[in-house]
Each structure stands twice: as structure tokens, then as C-alpha cells.
Amino acid sequence: MTAGGDATRMAAQPADDASLAVALLAVDPVGLGGAVLRAAPCAIRDHWLAAFRGAMPVGTAWRRMPPDTPDSRVLGGLDLGATLAAGRPLAERGILAEADDGIVVLPMAERLACVMAARLAAVLDTQEVVVERDGLARRWPARICIIALDEGIDAEEMPPAQLLDRIAFMIGLDDLPRGAVVISPGPEIIAAARKTLARVVIQPELLHALCATALALGIASPRAVLLALRAMCAAVALAGRTMAREEDAMIAARLVLAPRATRLPEATPEEAPPETDPAEAMESESHPAAEQPRDEDLADIVTAAARAAMPPALLARLAAAQQAATRAGAAGRAGAVRRDGKRGRALGARAGRLHDGARLALIETLRAAAPWQAMRRRRDPRGDRPVLIRAEDIRLRRYEERSGTTAIFAVDASGSTALHRMAEAKGAVEMLLAECYARRDRVALIAFRRDSATVLLPPTQALARARRCLAALPGGGATPLAAALEAASCLAEAERRQGRLPLLILMTDGRANVARDGQTGRVAGEADALAMAPLLRAAGLPILLVDTAPRPQPFTRALADAMGGRHVPLPQADAAAMSAVIGAAARAA
Prior knowledge:
This protein is α/β, with parallel strands linked by helices. It folds into three domains: 4-260, P-loop containing nucleotide triphosphate hydrolases (Rossmann fold); 338-402, no CATH class; 405-588, von Willebrand factor, type A domain (Rossmann fold, 3-Layer(aba) Sandwich), CATH 3.40.50. A six-stranded mixed β-sheet has the order 15-14-13-16-17-18, sandwiched between helices. The protein has a five-stranded parallel β-sheet with strand order 2-5-8-1-9. It has a three-stranded antiparallel β-sheet with strand order 10-12-11. Strand 14 and strand 15 form a beta hairpin. The model is unreliable at 1-11, 269-274, 278-292 and 318-336 (pLDDT under 50).
């Protein structure tokens, strides 16, 4: 039996896999960790959740935890009202402890902060919640299963990696056909499988096949193999058996390993059957035995099953996700992170002193003061105040603010560009302006022609104004490329001083023929542009040079290298294609 010949048998329908994930997760919810449902709010997602909830035992805890839930509600801690009333510290359990032996649903999981994801990962590892703050030290059991609802628009929006590494199933519900139905097994089947789960036996060759498949798919985390092993055990128990088979390993590879692939496995060449001695052949015919596949053949079969289940766009999504992870914490498309600001996303509270501009975290301050009220009332000569606050109790709010991005479009409006690509360039810029507006980025427009560069549109978020300036962009004349670089550099520096991140998109055919002092000629224009390039490189400005010439010249590539930017030649493309290429390059810059 060959891996390639069984590919059709190994590839199940996406709806069948979604239903199978429901059953396996219901058999071993804590061991498998949970599932990620990648889909916008839709009927099929609600059907999957309803099927999973119906497969769980009656009375199973079911809690929802939005991404902005405070730590005190997630982990638990001091019960402020009860503590102030009783005069002694009293604790309350959080969402995770309340969901012990139950389910925690994370809506908008792609917006989950990395700090909270790390705490959830620790709970999945230890299966308990540890709280040591506000004068409390508590431990609560938290054997939970997490259902992360990933509503990200593109591959860059996804739940944090430390959480994905501990969750078995990643299900793309958007890939399901219209009208697909998720089937839930009966509670009796799940109950019987749970009783059988502890008696499941896994042969060493099946474990070796899973490890070989993970290696072939480029999966580095050992947790993926452990989760695949738990899924294989659940599949065996669900089938009412105690001994694992080849098809159980294929299910685990298809559901757990295939969505984590970072590369396509190499095809295994067919091997010629080994030569055997005639006497041995006659002996084997006289004493037939059940043919057992070799470990290598079994690994190839399981790997082929995972390969057949890989979604077509999986590698593209993973590549984009890796680029997003590389840019995590650095200046990127969403802007740099600045903490302890006066606005932005709330990050909790910290101890500090009140000063101008500081914002008091009242609840956290009361939490810090509550455990000491009985002692302070005994020492305070005036007992008429209901709550005694000390300077060490003060807690200030912390915020995370992202600085915005300013996309500076420097568009060549010279005669050569107007002759060849001006219409396409305008269309591409207009599409990119709309994309920047959707991200709430600011845009600026510089046009250069004849002997100067003009800032037609200062940095703004007004899309209609940008479109009007773009429509009125004139064409014709020489190409003062050096003047355009100088104007873009000045504008980028002004934006950087205001705390914003500039991105320069230079669209030109590279036929520079005017220097900054007005001298004409190709030699002077190119030399002056190359002289400006090191200044842009030293500023660390992300730059995209889009070469719109019908035949890209070596000068444009040399200019991009001198500026430390990316050179994107587009000799033949319409506005939509040009916008797609520039947008992809901008996201990777």
C-alpha cells in the first residue's frame, strides 16, 4: 500500500472533519486543550458550538471571556465588597476557576493580549489558577477547554502563538461548503468513549509515524505531537476499541498536524520490492502471515494523509503570520507600542504617586487598601472614615497606545510616466489610499514634475480630499527625482517628531533628469538622487520603490539599494495588480 495511492481515502470532507473534531474534543476536552474556530460570526459557527455543547455532559460549565476582561475577573482575587463589609480579606473565584471541568469561549481571540494569552497557557499547563496579590494566596483547580473564536480578516490577525501551541484543533469554518451540517454524537457514545479512553494502547510504530509526519511538515513544537497523540487516543476510544490502528493516526495527522504545517512534505519515491530467495518465498507461501507495513511505509501513509488535508491557502497564511510574528513588538503597520500613556487600550493598574495627568484606578486602589482596614481602624484615632487610604495603596491606570502610520506617496508626474503609466499609477494610489483609510492611517501625497516636488496633500485622514488631489494631479515635464526624495525626507521627519511612523512609497520610472539646483541632464539628475539616498537610509525609513517603467533600468534598483528600500518592478500591470503588489510589499516592510 502506497501513500500516494491512498490520498483519496485519507482526505475527508471539511464538514466531516469539523464534526469529528466535535466528537474527539468531547471525549477528551482537557487533554486536547480546545479548538480554534476561524470564521466570522455565522450560522455554521453557531451550529458547531451548539453541537459541541450538546455533546458535553449536562451541567458542564460554559463561560465567555471577551479579550478586554480584567485580570481580577479572569483569575479571581479579592472580593472587594465582601472584604469591606467583613473587615477581613475574602476571595472570589474568577472565570477560569468557575469553568473547572468546563469550557471557556474566547470571542475575538485574535485581539487577545499576549500577557493574557501567557496566563491562559500557564493554566492549560498546570490545570490550576494561582493568585498571589492583594494580601491573598489562593489556588483553585482549573481543568478547562478553550474554544477560541478567531474572527481575523487576514493571516496577520490570529490568536497569540503561545495559546495556539496548546490547542489541538484549528478549524477553518470559512472553508465549509454552503449548507454544511455539523453532527454531534450522542451523549451515550461520548460517555462510553470516556470510560474506554484510559485503557487505549498506542503501538510504538504509530507514535514514530506521528513524529515523522511532524518533521516532514516542518513542525518544531513537541506539543503538536503530544496533542496528536491525545487525538489518536480519543479516536480509538470513540470507535469503541482499545488498540490503535493506522486510520487513527491518519485522523490525528489530518486534524492536528496538517493545520500546523510550515512546508509541504517531500514526495516519497516508490521503492522497488526487495529481492527474496526462492526458498524463502516458498516457505512464506506455505506459512502465510498477516502483512504488516514497515515503520517507514506507515510514516509515509500518515504524512500523505496530513498533506491531503492541508487547505490550499494554508502556506500563504502561515508565511504572512510568520512575517507578523517577526514584526511583533517593533514598528510596523499598526504602529509602535507606547505604554503608560494617557490614552489607548487599558493595561490594568500599577502602584504610583498621583501627579498631573495621572489617572487614578479607584477600584484597584480600594482593593489594595481593603485587607488592612481592620488594622488601620485600631490604630487610627479617628474612626469616622469608612475606608482608610494610605499613599502606598494608590494605583494608577496604565494604557497602551499605538502610534499611527503615515503613508507618504511620492508620485512621478513627469512626461515619461504620464505617457506610459500615469493612469495605472493613479488607480493604484487611490486603492491604497482607501486601504490606509480603513486602517485609520494618515496619508500624504507628493507630486514631482518639471523642476520641483510639491506636497499636494499634507498628512490627513480625509479620504475624499486625497481623492480630489489625486484626480487633479497634472502630468508632463521633466523628472526632479532628487527634489522628491528631499521633500519626502522632510515630511517623514516631521511625522516622526509627532510620534507617528512614516512609510515612503515612491512610484517612478526612474528617468531622473533634473538636479536640485535646477541643472538638467540624466547624469546630473541621477547623481543628485543617489546623493540623497544615504540620508534616507540613515533615517531608517521604510521605503518601497515601485518601478513603473516599461523596461526597468539598473538605476532604479541601485537607488532602492542605496536607500535601503525594496525595489518592486511592475513593467506590465493594471491598477488592481499594482495595488495588490504594493500593498503586500508595504505589509512586509
